[in-house]
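Dear support,

I submitted the protein below through the web form. The confirmation email said the job was done, but the results page showed an empty box. After a refresh the structure appeared. I'm attaching both so you can tell me whether what I see now is the final result or a partial one.
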Amino acid sequence: MSPRLRVWLVVGAAAIAAAAIAVGVTVATRSDVDRQTSKAPPFVADPTAPAEISKDVRDALRAWPAGTVRRLRILAARYPNSGLVRLELGLALAFTGQQTDASHAWHDSRRVQPDSPSAVHATDLLHPGTPPGLPPFVPSFTRARTAAQQHLLRGIAFQQALRPVSAEDEFAAAAHAAPRDPEALTAAAVGLYDKERPAAAFSRLGPLARRFPHAQTVRFHLGLLLIYFGDLRQAKRELALARAEGPRTPLGRRAETLLRAARKS
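What the results page shows now:
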């Protein structure tokens, strides 16, 4: 499966599941404590974590249920910049019914290592009613022909690797290289999207819709971000406008796919 197809499948799945997405830990924390503690939390691999840290975390999880939280707290002190340790600590706390402490650990994961898959997963756990991950930027081209487009493709690769800060930097570089290009400017706005602070992205996309009223990429991504935000009604309006700008273009066909999925949700 190509990276581009994987991205699009994520987008489609987000549209279908936007109305009701449940993270596994949410189910666990809604059951009784005895049931919660019967099975260890999952190990969520993070390629940015050093092998030593991953091994130590796995060892801590094997001690479940006795000793896991204590060992992970020790690891958090030993590795103060590890998002993985704090993600797993939060899972262990949630599985033992300590939801408030779990939320603190997930916020810490975002804070200490924001440019990591662990931070992205922690954000999902903090916002279990939203589509997983972050909204991807979907380009209108297939091959980079300009410096700005090269930055866009690098940003997309970082998004696929769940490296949101690096993706944001590449999208910002694309906008700097092509300050009048609606596609580069849209990507820079998409790169700002954060479930904790969604206004940063919308405050960029709104003015772009007025500045480029017929730019399909602006309307498409505005609709996509609204899906992640949970406003399906307005998302449908924006996606319909995107489709109207060119139903047979790649983005037009993708807008139609999302509209069909939204009608089924």
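Response: this is the final, complete result; the empty box was a page-load delay. Residues 3-17 form the longest helix (15 residues).
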